[in-house]
Amino acid sequence: MCGICGIIDWKNTLSDASRQELVRAMNKAITHRGPDDAGTLSDGIGTLAMRRLSIIDRKGGQQPIYNETGDIGVVFNGEIYNYPELKTLLLEKGHQFRTNADTEVLVHLYESFGTNMLDMISGMFSFCIYDQKKQTYFLARDSFGEKPLYYYWDGQIFSFSSEIKSLLENKNIPRKLNHEALPYYFKTSLVPEPLTLLDQIKTIPAGHYLFLSKEKFELEPYFKPDYEVDESIEETEAIELIRPFLTKAVQRQMVSDVPIGAFLSGGIDSSTIVALLAQNSNKPVNTFNVRFENQAYDESAIARRVAEHCGTEHHEVFVPDVDFDENIFWKIIDHVGLPFRDSSAIPSYLVSQEISKHVKVALSGDGGDELFGGYDLFQWYQKIVDLKKIARPVRCALNGGLGVAQTLPVFNKSSLLRKVKRGIRTSLLSEADISIALNELYQDDQIEEMLRGYLGTVDQEYALLKENNEDFASWSPLRKIMYYRLVHTLPSNMLIKVDRMSMANSLEVRCPFLDRNLFAVSAKLPDNLLVNQGKGKYLLRKMMEDSLPSEVFNHPKMGFSIPLYKYQNEAFKNLAQRLLFDENPWPELIPVEQLKEIYHRGIYTQTDDANYTVFQTAHQLWMLMQLFGWGKRFNVEN
Fold first, then answer.
1. In the chain, how many H helices and how many E strands?
2. How many CB atoms lie within 10 A of CB 517?
3. What string of H, E and C letters represents the secondary structure of 200-225?
4. How much is the pLDDT for 56?
5. Beta bridge partners of 19
6. Whole-prediction pTM value?
7. Distance CA 51, CA 297 (A)
8. How confident is the model at residue 468 (pLDDT cuts 50, 70, 90)?
9. Cα torsion for 587, 593, 597, 600, to the nearest 10°?
10. Average pLDDT, stretch 377-391?
């Protein structure tokens, strides 16, 4: 695991010395991603650099790594899990290896297969390969977006890095708010790839590569998730189909020259990984759990049962209520480099901090919901599609009547009324808009009020969230919402959290569920093996029921979240007051009356009612705090 960065300048806009000095600063800013080693590749065109967290071939795997003739070099962030098989193939083709590191297979694969090498790799990665003879650069990112790669291109200078903070060490890059991305951020709390909230700074999307030369700038996909469901597959056959692929993914990701551990929340996904890890390990596995003071959010007792059942060495991190510390707010912004809505970054950071004291590598259950139909949201989507069977005029009338009811004092505390109203309102949307609406934090009328001074310059159609696979229309409702989560929420939220909070603590996190071969076989499963009798991850439950305690399967899904509204101590309130009003970096962006309303709702709403949930009000405020805090921290212009 590492961090990479670089500047490429074919027109010699910068002097060699200036370019190298900038890249040194960029590389220093990602030292936390690789505290063990550093390396640089530089010539008259470009300078590439990396920081290394040494996991495999700790002594021999220093980067950059070159081919036999020294004219093709690579800087690499991630792990290639099938590198032993690839190395055998490459040796048979006559390639010579100097190391036992997985990195070295990349330069030889590129020599023999060019960009087609990406179809052969199983792993999480972002890398840059430089062909000095051809003066070309080949950058790529893994299929699901586990490893990040941001870039800036002004037509003359190309800069890239694993993290935004590092990229902005290049002082030639403007720091300007991207108004095009703002509606996305407020609507769904994420900004879809390739956009970021910084104008002209983009991310190479998951499953894409970028080919650069003096004449070319080619950004192309090499992987697009697809579902080719085989309705003839039955339960027993499905278990026999999935088990070996999942087991192999875990076994591959156990390869390490340093100790490994695992996250253990007590949910089905992490418990499954821990069980398979324990079954394939010859010594007790270290497992780690966050224990919340608020019992409604606490799965630690179940995690302890799993740890006992699997014979692990178990560790707990205790998170008390009203223990918000401003320092962690700024740590999230510094390491993400962008506003980040997901408050579960807080416990993710804390548990990663604890794990890093014991191991350098940890396996997690991320991706299990996306592959095996785990989120409650998936079933909500189906229910809303079913509502469309009711005549539209009837639904319109119901929507209007429920809207009136929300304003009546007798109903204003009814959480049920809110749910029914939202379901009816969402059913009036097109199918492409339902996924977006189910993930919304702010409604369109709120966004219009907030951004009314910018409405002529922003897109509220959310087109990037509607770019679907060409076979999308033929998929079942379940697969449609699963696709949305896989290609938008996963890379633009979940995996950002996993990567940045773990790497902030120099910890490598691996996600066996995101094995591409496992995804391919999961994509064949009929819907009834994913969601059955109102329960998600049906097949995973059946497959693991003999390997895990029954408690894992018999409690409601909680997710790795925190009760943010309970963390609003005086430090939280003071920070919110400062960022929204006293030290707002863009006081002209959102009308002050809107800010006051959001602040008041966010601080004083303590129970769900007919209009809002406490999750929504607390996170609407948190989103603004993150946005303004980021603007202030990074000196971003409006």
1. 23, 17
2. 14
3. CEEECCCCEEEEECCCCEEEEECCCC
4. 63
5. none
6. 0.94
7. 37
8. confident
9. 70
10. 92
Angle, vertex CA 478, rays to CA 435 and CA 367, nearest 5:
85
> What span, in angstroms and rounded, lies between the C-alpha atoms of 323 and 434?
37
Mean pLDDT along residues 420-437: 90
DSSP state of 198: B
SS (H, E, C) 13-63: CCCHHHHHHHHHHHHHCCHHHCECEEEEEECCCEEEEEEECCCCCCCCCCC
Identify the helix (H) or strand (E) that includes residue 245.
Answer: helix 235-253
pLDDT above 80 (res 561): no
Is residue 362 helix, strand or coil?
A: strand
**Element (DSSP H or E) covering residue 172:** none
Give catalytic residues, as residue numbers.
Answer: 2
pLDDT at 296: 59
Inter-CA distances, 187 with 289, 420, 444, 524, Å: 32, 20, 7, 32
**Contacts for 114 with CB less than 8 Å, ≥ 6 apart:** none
CA dihedral 94, 96, 102, 106 (to 10 degrees): -60
Read off the DSSP letter of residue 494: I
Q: Residue with structure tokens 């918000």?
A: 324
C-alpha separations of 501 from 40, 323, 335, 338 in Å: 25, 19, 7, 13
β-bridge mates for residue 2, sequence order: 52
pLDDT of residue 557: 67
Q: How far apart are CA 411 and CA 401, in angstroms?
A: 12
Report the candidate in 140, 139, 138, 122 with the shortest Cα–Cα distance to residue 206.
Answer: 140
Give residue 178's Cα distance to chain centre.
Answer: 20
In the three-class reduction of DSSP (H, G, I as helix; E, B as strand; rest coil), residue 243 is classed as helix
**Whether 211 contacts 115, CB under 8 Å:** yes
pLDDT in tens, 94-125: 999 998 889 999 999 999 999 999 999 999 99
Which structure tokens are listed for 357?
């004291």
Position 455 scores a pLDDT of 60
Whether the per-residue pLDDT at 158 is higher than 90: the answer is yes
Q: What is the DSSP letter of 177?
A: B
Q: In 10 A of CB 593, how many CB atoms? A: 9
Residue 173 has what DSSP assignment? Answer: S
Per-residue pLDDT at 546: 92
Cα(535)–Cα(94) distance, rounded to whole angstroms? 52
User: Span 55-67, mean pLDDT?
Assistant: 77
Beta carbons within 8 Å of 443's beta carbon, 6+ residues apart: none
